[in-house]
Amino acid sequence: MENIRKKVKEEGILKKIQSMIAIPMNIEEILTEEGISSKVEKKITKKDYPNLYKIKKSPFYEDFSFFISDMKRLPYYEGKMIDLNIFLSSLEKLASNEKLYEYGTIPDSIASDEETMLKTFKKYGFKPYNKKGGSKNKNKKVIKKQKGGNNKKLTKIELENFIKKINIEEYEGDADDDYSFDLYDDLVENEKAYYLCRKKIDKGYINEVFNNKKGKGFIATTKKGDYIGFIIFFEKNKSLYLDLVCTIKNKYTKGLPLGQIFLYKMEKYAKENNYNKMTGDSVKPALEFYKSLGWKQKSVGKDGKIKIEKKINKSKSIKNKNKKIKKKSYNILEMLKSLFIIKK
C-alpha cells in the first residue's frame, strides 16, 4: 500500500514538473481553419482541464473551437510560437467564464470584432512564446512556410466538384418574389446573416447590403437547406464591386473552400456580363487570401481598408474562332475543285 502511495505521489510531482516545462509550438499546429487541432484536443482531459473538458463534451464545443481558431488570424498571434501548456491553461480559464453559456453562442462582449477578441485572448493569458536568446530568424522561417499553405488556388474542375456538394442560389436585390422575401426574413430579420459573418460585421451594414436594389450575388446552403454563406456584389464605376462575403465554418462546411467558391462564382458572373475587372476592400488578415487568387493591392484608405482589384481575362470570342474555321474550309474546297478540273 505504501509503494502505491509513493508511486502516485511521484507521478503527481512528475506531472507538475512537466506542466512547468515549455512546449513551444507554431500556432498553425495548435489551431486549424476549423478549430483546435486534434493533437491539442487529446490533451484535454477531465482531470487536468475540467471546464474545458465540459465544453468539449457539449454541443457548444464546435462554435467554441471555431472561435478560438480566429486567434491565428489576428496579427498579434499570426505565425507565432505558442507555449502549449500556457495555451491550455488560458483555455481552461476562458472555459470557466459563465457568459459563454448564456445564449449558447459566443457573446459580443467576448468576440464582437477583432479588437474585442484580442482583448479577450490577452485577458485570459494567451500570449506568444518568447524564449530569451532564441533565434528570431527561426520564427520567420516558420511564418514563411505557413503563409499561403491554406490559400492553395483550386482549379475550375476542383471548385465545380465542391459546388456539387452544396446548393447555390442566385441572389437579386431587386427581386420581389416569395423566395426573396423569405430570404430577407431569414438573413436580415432573423439575423442569420449576422451569424454567417461570425458576428464581425455590423448589423446595420448587413441590413444596408441586403436593401441595395442593385445587389447581385449567390447564397449557399447545405443539401438540407441550412445557410452556410453568401456573397453580394454590385456595379460600381463600370466594375463589379465586392460588397460583402461571409462564410461559416461548422461540421457541414468542413473542408469546403467556400471563400474560393464565392469568388469563383463572382468572376464567372463578371465574365458573362462583360465586366473588365472586379474591385473591393480587404482587411489586412484577408489580403494574402485575395492575392493567392489573383487579386492585387491598389491602395490603403484612411479607414485602414485596403483597396483591391482583379482584372478579368476574357477568353477569345467564339466568333473569331468560327472565322478561322470558315477560312480553312474555303481553302480545302478550292483544292478539291482544282483536282476535279485536272482529273476531268
How would you summarize the topology of this molecule?
Elements (H helix, E strand, L loop, with lengths): L1 H19 L3 E3 H4 L7 H4 L8 H7 L4 H9 L11 E3 H12 L12 H4 L2 H10 L12 H11 L9 H8 L3 E6 L5 H12 L2 H5 L6 H8 L5 E6 L5 E10 L2 E9 L10 H15 L4 E6 L1 H9 L3 E5 L5 E6 L6 H26 L1
Parallel strand pairs: 6-7
Antiparallel strand pairs: 1-2, 3-4, 4-5, 5-6, 7-9, 8-9
Fold and architecture overview:
By secondary structure, the chain is of the alpha+beta class. It folds into 3 domains: 2-146, no CATH class; 156-276, Gcn5-related N-acetyltransferase (GNAT) (Aminopeptidase), CATH 3.40.630.30; 320-344. Helix content is 47%, strand content 16%. It has helices at 2-20, 27-30, 38-41, 50-56, 61-69, 84-95, 108-111, 114-123, 136-146, 156-163, 178-189, 192-196, 203-210, 258-272, 284-292, 318-343, and strands at 24-26, 81-83, 167-172, 216-221, 227-236, 239-247, 277-282, 296-300, 306-311. The strands form 2 sheets. It has a 7-stranded mixed beta sheet, with helices on both faces. A two-stranded antiparallel ribbon has the order 1-2. The N and C termini lie far apart (118 Å). Mean pLDDT is 80; it is low at 13-19, 133-150 and 316-330.
Strand order of the largest sheet: 3-4-5-6-7-9-8
Apparent shape: globular
Total separate domains? 3
N-to-C CA distance: 118 Å
In angstroms, what is the radius of gyration?
27 Å
Helix content percent band:
40-55%
- What structural class is derived from the secondary structure elements? alpha+beta
Query: Using DSSP, what is the number of strands?
Result: 9
Largest sheet descriptor: 7 strands, mixed
**How much of the polypeptide forms β-strand, as a percent range?**
15-25%
Contiguous runs where pLDDT drops below 50 for at least 5 residues: 13-19, 133-150, 316-330
State the helix count.
16
Order of helices and strands: HEHHHHEHHHHHEHHHEEEHEHEEH
Give the overall pLDDT as a whole number.
80
- Oligomeric state of shown chains: single chain
